[in-house]
Design goal:
Shape: globular
Strand order of the largest sheet: 15-12-14-13-17-18-16
Oligomer: single chain
Structural class: alpha/beta
Number of strands: 25
Number of helices: 44
Radius of gyration: 29 Å
Distance between the termini: 68 Å
């Protein structure tokens, strides 16, 4: 193969899970570059007799991509749009392209692909086709089987066939295609009555193979491959039906005090012709309020504490009819006794914000602390709308009978709800309850002539129940389809037909005997229930494999599973539970796994379950150094605060390195710092604290070592602005300046960081306890006091310091909101500023205050650069081994945006490393926000 072949234990471990409860280690993993690679792998599978499994984003809910097989992952290389036909409204794509990326490339064409699954940021079209995925707007656009026109696939026997519409006369079709078409026609003819009797008359029915499509007037075998979960052929190209982009959308958030009422009203709401009706239950709302990414949305758009919400959307090309539909909705609810229950969402932001909450439903639900989690196995049963309220009521009673409760969300419009009972799958009782609930729930579904598999496919969870739901004759028909396409059973065995028991605990992620190794941690993990429990929070949904966000910058640059949040958390979980051997935590493979984590903390905020790999990397490095020692390169960056006072005295000499290419190359060999970079220039005129000028309220100015020794003008600017605003600026004047410990934490030297932070706590604790703000200017340093401080130090007024620690802009914005900011600023003429936010500012939610502060500057208009990590991340981007990936991160969005900014515009970046990356990569000088404020002070 030309693509990558991964057979190491860590790689197999990372591909042993998806978003289900199962874990099966594959034989190995391959990342094909083209169809020829796929053909080569399948040819070898035939020769050696091993199975092959197709995988895309790895976000399946039911174990579809797991098995003791060679996994072929198409998401890294086979991810292109091959052709867009704007006239016909079609797109030809490779299987590994992600849905959001497809729609991004379609932007401006007037077309889009509307099968909008909640995992659209990481779900691949190949996976969606394999699972017959649906989405929010299926009531209007249908599901994948209605929107796939052709599928090119490689079969187990090596035949490469384009499956599409077939004529009645098959004489002109290739031999293998004609053979399969005749077999499927005969199969349908022999089972037509049984198919009509057994297949539910619902939109949402994806269980088994789509035998009912074989009887359609224009036979299209691509529809049989849709939903086949990679068991019939390996998809190589997929032709999609596109739809016109609606010009207008309006939304309504309908509040209900009783869950039953929301379900009962759905059938009436659907008659108004909405494009979507989505459910959000109280459990999800309560959990979302605890997640920083969603808290503001819930507080802004949700009234009180409803038991359920229905999110209703109307879409079309004219706005007036949509507003009329909204009015009819309000009247309908009022007529049924729900007057005033609707909050309108007319602006795009409100609609997008609430959609984001609903789309994150799985991850929000999985953010529950503890071993009990909402478990997916009956989650997308579908029933006729008229039975929906009664069905949900009966399921709720069923859960109660088994001593648990369910979480509810998703597609009320089509009677398909994602319901997950809360079970502890680490315990044998969890498996027993799961089977009992499944058997009873599916009996209820069958009673309503519903579907036990309405969206997420069969996989390991539901394939076993096809006999119960469809009858033995239909199961034999499914087996006949499998045997016609794949007689040796090489393609994804055990799915749809001949499946194992769904409650076989040897297939679970938490197998019998699962336990953690004894690990003495350096950080306090008690809030998560321990280090292992923190890694177990990752549910493998793959939300981190996205591109329109900060998380995860290294994955965005490499597209490797090991470099994504999920891959790192999985590797740590496997190591901490002993599944990779007793020394896996301190192995070279683990170091390689975490090497490209830039500690941006984006996962801390953007991962809905709060998997914090940045903190996990600190813990890992602590153990790594304890076993292997600390390198000279790590010492150089970690101990900078300690040797900085001495180094600054030799600033001109040290800085010669930047002006001499020869010295830079020598220094690279000695220090590991890339000769392609200019290092921060040391200053002899370092920042020195001045006497406090008594004016108004006290403010502690916390000056970090980067500002003190490299860019003293930033600290000076902050002090002058604070004094101009009438504050008494207090600074630490001890012989050794206070330090946040950031450089030590970045190197995993937790004990050294604890020394520095303990010193800081005792120095600033009294001021913090009496409410004095602690204002800092370097985000990575100041925000350490809000984030890691409590995990490193346990004694002293830690909470007070965390509460009082504010970035410069946060402080100004807060004082302005209180009406207490007395800062005279002069207009400096109209000017544009382009703002790049530091990763930690984004992760800890401080960017709104940065913008609010900048709005205080007269005549300044600000445009936020939508960027991920700049790629520098402290010392990371300076290191020779990381230079290339650092630049790839920066080139994704930051550097192109800076280069295109007008020459007379300000470029703003609070992070010292961000400013250096911009200078190196775009040859533009970026400045700290404090410098802009200083420039607008009266002369």
């Amino acid at each position: 193969m030309r693509g990558d072949v991964l057979f190491g234990a860590f790689d197999r471990g990372r591909y042993s899970t998806d978003a289900s409860i199962y874990q099966i280690e594959p034989i190995g993993v391959a990342l094909p570059k083209d169809i020829e690679d796929i053909e080569a792998a399948i040819a070898l599978a035939r020769e050696e007799g091993f199975p092959v499994i197709a995988r895309g984003g790895g976000s399946s809910q039911n174990g579809q991509t797991l098995g003791e097989a060679v996994v072929l992952d198409t998401s890294r290389y086979m991810n292109q749009v091959l052709e867009i036909d704007k006239t016909a409204g079609t797109a030809l794509v490779q299987p590994g392209i992600v849905l959001d990326e497809l729609n991004r490339q379609l932007k401006g064409s007037g077309w889009y692909f509307p099968v909008d699954v909640s995992t659209s940021a990481n779900a691949t079209i190949g996976g969606m086709t394999g699972n017959n995925s649906a989405g929010t707007r299926s009531i209007k656009y249908g599901i994948m089987v209605h929107n796939v026109l052709e599928v090119e696939a490689v079969l187990a026997d090596g035949a490469r066939i384009v499956f599409g519409e077939l004529p009645d006369d098959l004489a002109t079709r290739p031999g293998r295609l004609a053979e399969l078409a005749r077999a499927m026609r005969a199969l349908y003819a022999n089972n037509a009555e049984e198919i009509a009797l057994r297949i539910p008359k619902l939109l949402r029915k994806v269980g088994g193979y789509n035998l009912d499509t074989l009887g359609e007037p224009r036979q299209n075998l691509a529809k049989l491959l849709v939903g086949s979960e990679g068991t019939l052929g390996f998809f190589t190209r997929i032709k999609l039906k596109l739809h016109p982009v609606p010009k207008h959308k309006v939304g309504a958030i309908c509040h209900f005090q009783r869950f039953y009422d929301s379900m009962d009203m759905t059938r009436f709401i659907v008659e108004l012709g909405p494009s979507a009706v989505e459910l959000v239950d109280r459990t999800m709302l309560d959990l979302a309020r605890q997640i920083p990414t969603f808290r503001a949305t819930i507080e802004r758009l949700v009234r009180g504490a409803p038991d359920a919400l229905l999110l209703v959307e109307f879409a079309g090309d004219e706005e007036a009819p949509l507003l009329q539909s909204l009015g009819r909705l309000e009247q309908l609810l009022a007529d049924h006794g729900y007057s005033g229950s609707v909050v309108r969402a007319l602006d795009a932001k409100s609609q997008a914000d609430m959609t984001a909450v609903r789309k994150a439903g799985l991850n929000i639900m999985m953010s529950m602390k503890g071993d009990g989690k909402p478990v997916s196995f009956i989650e997308d049963c579908a029933v006729p709308l008229g039975d929906l309220a009664e069905f949900t009521d009966r399921l709720t009673k069923l859960f109660r009978k088994h001593g648990t409760q369910g979480t509810w969300y998703a597609h009320a419009s089509v009677g398909c709800l994602h319901v997950r009972p809360i079970l502890n799958m680490k315990d044998e009782s969890g498996a027993r309850k799961m089977r009992s609930i499944a058997e009873e729930a599916f009996s209820i579904v069958k009673e309503y002539k519903g579907s036990h598999s309405g969206e997420h496919g069969d996989g390991l969870s539901r394939s076993e129940f096809h006999g119960m739901m469809f009858g033995d004759r239909m199961v034999r028909a499914f087996e006949a389809v499998k045997d016609a396409f794949d007689p040796r059973g090489l393609l994804n065995p055990g799915k749809i037909v001949r499946a194992p028991k769904m409650d076989d605990r040897t297939l679970f992620r938490y197998k019998p005997g699962y336990h953690g190794l004894e690990v003495q941690t350096a950080l306090d993990w008690s809030e998560s229930g321990g280090f292992l429990a923190a890694t177990e929070m990752c549910n493998n949904n793959g939300n981190c494999r996205k591109f329109e966000a900060v998380m995860c910058p290294s994955y965005q640059a490499t597209l490797e599973e090991k470099d994504v949040t999920r891959g790192r958390a999985n590797s740590l979980r496997l190591a901490l539970s002993g599944q990779l051997g007793p020394d896996a935590l301190v192995s070279d493979a683990m170091k390689d796994t975490l090497d490209l984590c830039v500690a941006c903390k984006a996962c801390r905020r953007e991962c809905p379950v709060g998997v914090d790999v940045a903190r996990m990397k600190i813990e890992f490095l602590h153990h790594w150094h304890a076993r292997h020692g600390i390198s000279a390169k790590s010492r150089l960056t970690a101990y900078l605060p300690r040797y900085a006072p001495a180094a600054s005295r030799f600033a001109p000499l040290i800085n010669l390195r930047n002006s001499s290419p020869a010295l830079a190359k020598v220094a690279e060999k000695l220090t590991g710092m890339s000769a392609k970079r200019k290092l921060p220039a040391w200053r002899r005129d370092i920042y020195r604290p001045g006497p406090t000028k008594q004016a108004g309220k006290d403010v502690v100015l916390f000056v970090d070592c980067f500002s003190r020794y490299f860019e003293p003008e930033n600290a000076g600017a902050a002090r002058r602005v604070l004094e101009a605003a009438g504050y008494s600026v207090v600074e630490d004047a001890s012989s050794r300046p206070l330090c946040c410990g950031r450089t030590f934490l970045s190197a995993g030297l937790v004990d050294e960081a604890r020394v520095e932070l303990t010193r800081l706590v005792y120095a600033l604790g009294a001021e913090a306890e009496r409410g004095v703000p602690i204002v800092g200017i370097e985000p990575s340093c100041l925000l350490t006091l809000r984030d890691e401080l409590g995990a490193v130090v346990k004694k002293g007024p830690i909470q007070a310091i965390a509460k009082q620690s504010l970035l410069f802009e946060e402080f100004l914005a807060r004082e302005s909101r209180r009406g207490e900011l007395k800062l005279a600023l002069r207009a400096n003429g109209p000017r544009k500023a382009y703002l790049h936010g530091h990763c930690h500012q984004k992760a800890l939610g401080t960017m709104p205050d940065v913008l609010a502060a900048l709005q205080l500057l007269p005549g300044l208009s600000v445009e936020v650069i939508e960027s991920s990590c700049c790629g520098m991340a402290g010392a990371f981007g300076y290191e020779a081994e990381h230079y290339d990936v650092s630049m790839r991160m920066a080139e994704r969005s930051l550097l192109p945006a800076v280069r295109s900014a007008p020459g007379d515009a300000w470029v703003l970046a609070d992070g010292t490393s961000c400013r250096h990356q911009i200078a190196d990569g775009a040859q533009r000088d970026a400045v700290h926000v404090a410098r802009i404020f200083e420039a607008m002070l009266p002369s």
